[in-house]
Fold 2,3-dihydroxybiphenyl 1,2-dioxygenase.
Amino acid sequence: MNDPTPIPARAADAHQGLHSGQGALRGEHPGRADQPIIKVVDLAWLEFTKPDLDRAETFAHDFGFATAARTEDTLYLRGALAGPHCLVIRRGTASRFIGPAFLAADATDLDRLGRATGHQVRPLTEYGGGRAVDLLDPSGIPVRVVHGVAEEPIRPLRQALVLNTGTPADAARVNATQRPPRTPAQVQRLGHLVLSTRVFRRALDWYLQHLGLIVSDFLYLDGQRGRGPTMAFTRCDRGSEPADHHTLAMHLGPDTGYVHSAYQVADLDVLAAGGEYLRERGYHRSWGIGRHIQGSQIFDYWRDPDRFMLEHYTDGDLFDNTLEPGWAAMSASGLAQWGPPATRDFLGTTPSPQTLLKAISALREDNEIDRARLLGLMKALSK
Ligand SMILES: [Fe+2]
């Protein structure tokens, strides 16, 4: 575990006005590793298993993905922008999240990661090809880092609407109507993944050290800031090139694994009309439409037929590597600037014997969950 070190001099003091909270206090987590092994440039894809690939593909198309390829046992889904396919769904007995794959900047980085971790770089022999290093994060989630995977070519893009604002003299649209189609919200690309873990601090430091991710925002439990953060929104360090406010977000919790993943769409109308399309087909909206605070995205959260949560988002923040982390207290009402109140379904606070059992087992295990933190989490999610 890294000891807290001072904020690097290069990090600009620009959290004011960008984040909801203030900056770090003396001695708090700096939000980046001094010398990470490599700096990944993005998420490549997420892997799942599902028993019914037909059902998975139907939902995927309704949600706005396109099929990149399908074999007897595997479904490869893509967004409309150029890049690697963004979801891999393998036929399996249960509906399960396997893990994320991140993109290395170049082949040398992949080799360096392999050498530093004692893992072999091996060729990927399935759709898209490329090479990979397979790691395990401290929560036990398989993390793949890839390079040289074939890119999908760009598809015709749904354009953002031209909006009229200000005085009629300034209007951008005259003698023309607004008719966004009620069709699936075309997914442009994979944006971020959110994970829950019982070993938050260990896992966070692992991602910062191994993949060079840097923290955009920390959340802490009210009254327990001195014990360190319990959630981090981390982005890729692309130097002066802007990156999504978060590519991986992670929080402490009694559960370990997938919380949700998010996919960019063109604008609010695509998101809202695509939401109507999903609602009309009987899918369950978990929470939305609203605008987040950390990351600023306009969001809409949905459940797939196996209750996995997926988010449509648009207009997210982009940071280069000069911004230092913001700090704020965690609360359900602090998740959005506007929108309906966060639902129990989204927060995972629907009381159930399963949730209770997970909490009890988390308390018994050697991890970062204890009574005070569990109560702090419950309090945060209730206000
Ligand atoms: Fe999200």
Notes: The helical segments are 53-63, 107-117, 200-211, 268-280, 344-347, 353-364, 371-381. The radius of gyration is 21 Å.
